[in-house]
Design brief:
Largest sheet: 8 strands, mixed
Helix content: 25-40%
Bound molecules: NADP nicotinamide-adenine-dinucleotide phosphate
Distance between the termini: 23 Å
Shape: globular
Radius of gyration: 20 Å
Structural class: alpha/beta
Order of helices and strands: EEEEHEEEEHEHEHEHEHEHEHEHE
Number of strands: 16
Length: about 350
């Protein structure tokens, strides 16, 4: 398996009392450090059915930006003054939960803290004998399944398809491009926000072409990269990328709307694509999806991803930030595009 890691600044903090990150105010526009607070946690004694877990890795994800606002959405907003939550992997330190033993690594939903007291529901033991625990937050976890569900079930990828994916160097996008090739795409094109990311997706991940969306109009760059048009667009960013993809869609093309990170920090609604009528002439289909609705694909994906990783068809990179005191930096960095591959915080 190939997993490369880029390191970001390391903390030297080794405080004994476990800490957690709380949301203390709702961001308006781009979040800032003032929206968060790092405080010591109160760890209650275990009730029957609970375990205490020391987290070794936690995830920061774009969807968390949505949960920082109180607008009605598919996921509840984070409560002000309380620890945020999210994907994490930890080691069981004490257990009163059946099926979970001291020393087990567990994947669970109580990130943004060093130590968590959790119930068995929503926690699962993971095998870290061959892989780094943090891979369960990326290619072996939610982002990987998102890529697979979006490509196979929503975009219904077929052999020979020309596939375009935005956010191509990120956690989801990097998997989309690589497994699209593994599933028979004839050409895979990616867009990303720097020359180095463009180089990475072509040279390291095997994309056929890529462009930096900051270099010029997405529509023009996409037409150059896919002169014959595209069959599938996997949308991670929304905005002008979506409009460009509709403009390049071939007959019976499919667009899987996964995310819209280009508008997550907007304070005003973003304009919609101006060319939706093109879906009529192309008989095109556009469909949004949430990975949570496709948990039934987990087993199928787990089987396939193991094979793709073993064969080298799929490689995964992480950008690692060290320490709970840099978790907010990691989250803000993710929104700014400082990650290549999955952004994780090692604790
Ligand atoms: N539907 C679902 O169930 C589901 C599940 C997981 C993720 N998602 C969505 O999938 C997308 C990717 O998530 P991820 O976890 O893989 O994150 P990611 O791609 O690893 O990280 C986010 C990336 O977004 C890019 N970005 C930031 N601002 C941008 C802008 N204005 N325009 C274009 N790109 C911008 C940055 O890369 P650049 O340097 O390239 O700009 C950044 O690295 C997000 O929209 C997320 O919300 C949806």
């Amino acid at each position: 398996m190939s997993a490369q890691t880029a390191q970001l600044p390391q903390t030297t903090d080794s405080a004994a009392a476990p800490r957690e990150v709380r949301l203390v105010s709702r961001p308006v526009g781009f979040p800032t450090h003032e929206n968060f607070e790092l405080v010591e946690s109160t760890i209650p004694p275990l009730a029957e059915g609970q375990m205490r877990v020391r987290n070794v890795a936690m995830s920061v994800d774009p969807y968390m930006r949505g949960r920082m606002s109180d607008a009605k959405s598919y996921a509840d907003p984070f409560a002000l003054g309380e620890a945020m939550d999210g994907g994490a992997v930890g080691v069981v330190e004490e257990s009163r939960a059946e099926g979970f033993a001291v020393g087990d690594h567990v994947l669970h939903g109580f990130g943004w803290r060093e130590v968590a007291v959790i119930g068995a529901k929503g926690a699962r033991v993971v095998d870290v004998s061959q892989v780094s625990p943090s891979l369960y937050l990326g290619v072996l976890g939610m982002p990987g399944l998102t890529a697979y569900a979006g490509l196979t079930r929503i975009a219904t990828i077929k052999e020979g398809d020309v596939v375009f994916v935005s956010g191509a160097a990120g956690a989801v996008g990097s998997v989309v491009g690589q497994i699209a090739k593994a599933l028979g795409a004839s050409r895979v094109i990616g867009s990303a926000g720097s020359a180095e990311k463009v180089r990475h997706v072509v040279d390291d991940l095997g994309f056929d072409a890529a462009f930096n969306y900051k270099d010029g109009a997405v529509s023009t760059q996409l037409r150059e990269a896919a002169p014959e048009g595209i069959d599938v667009y996997f949308d991670n960013v929304g905005g002008d990328h979506l409009e460009a993809a509709i403009g390049s869609l071939r007959l019976r093309g499919r667009i899987a709307v996964c995310g819209a990170i280009s508008v997550y920090n907007n304070t005003e609604p973003a304009p919609g694509p101006r060319n939706l009528a093109r879906l009529i002439q192309t008989r095109g289909r556009i469909e949004g999806f949430l990975v949570g609705d496709h948990a039934d694909l987990s087993k199928e994906y787990a089987g396939k991803v193991a094979g793709w990783l073993a064969s080298g068809e799929l490689t995964s990179r992480e950008t690692v930030v060290h320490g709970i005191d840099h978790a907010v930096d990691a989250f803000l960095g993710l929104l700014r595009g400082e990650n290549t591959g999955k952004m994780v915080v090692r604790l």
